[in-house]
Design brief:
Strand content: 15-25%
Distance between the termini: 27 Å
Shape: globular
CATH class: Alpha Beta
Structural class: alpha/beta
Radius of gyration: 15 Å
Number of domains: 1
Largest sheet: 7 strands, mixed
Order of helices and strands: EHEHEHEHEEEEHHEH
CATH architecture: 3-Layer(aba) Sandwich
Number of strands: 9
């Protein structure tokens, strides 16, 4: 894997970057990482924590402010496209990582919408990358905490040091209690599906 390159992580919320890919970002320090969070840009609590987390991850970042109300009303697709493009640097990235269109657990609409939108932006060449990875976790339809999916193409077991660093970002920076869903979920094993072409990624929609 060429690690002397640029990589972009597009997530729905601050903390998603750490939960689902934090160990990979920490492990591949020679990449130039940028993290774009679609939601919570005006959140006076989560936005500062996001930028503090990125300092620990060694990444730059940007935020949007897409509606993230508790009812999770479906977003207009074109509006989501625009929101993503507004926070993504206009560069070509060797690697883009985002949510699975199926999400990581049962269920979070914003995760699913973000993953699907990124794939479609890649297909229509508004997002330029050499390879796209999507998070590959599932929770057995709610029967257990999210863990690496059997469909994953890349599975990485994090060292104790990397996992503890990642977990400290979740608990100490983002402020989630040690008994919270986020802290209990924080995967020691990170997993991704890998796509070389938009056509292959479109098959997951």
């Amino acid at each position: 894997m060429d690690t002397d390159s640029s990589a972009l992580v597009i997530v729905a919320h601050p903390d998603d970057e750490t939960l689902w890919a934090g160990g990979t970002i920490l492990e591949q320090r020679t990449r130039r990482w940028h993290v774009a969070s679609v939601c919570r840009g005006s959140d006076t609590d989560r936005a500062p924590k996001f930028h503090q987390a990125l300092q620990c991850l060694g990444a730059s970042g940007s935020m949007g402010d897409v509606d993230d109300a508790p009812d999770q009303a479906p977003l207009q697709e074109n509006a989501l496209f625009d929101a993503i493009l507004n926070i993504v640097p206009p560069d070509r990235f060797e690697l883009v990582i985002t949510h699975s269109p199926k999400g990581e657990y049962t269920r979070h609409r914003r995760h699913e919408e973000t993953g699907a939108a990124v794939i479609k932006l890649w297909r229509c060449r508004k997002l330029s990358c050499g390879q796209l990875w999507t998070f590959a976790y599932d929770d057995g339809e709610g029967r257990h905490l999210p863990r690496a999916s059997s469909e994953a193409d890349v599975v990485t077991e994090l060292s104790e040091e990397l996992w503890q660093t990642k977990r400290r970002i979740i608990t100490d920076i983002y402020g989630f209690a040690h008994t919270s869903f986020e802290a209990r979920t924080t995967p020691r094993t990170e997993a991704f599906r890998c796509f070389e072409s938009p056509a292959d990624a479109m098959l997951t929609l």
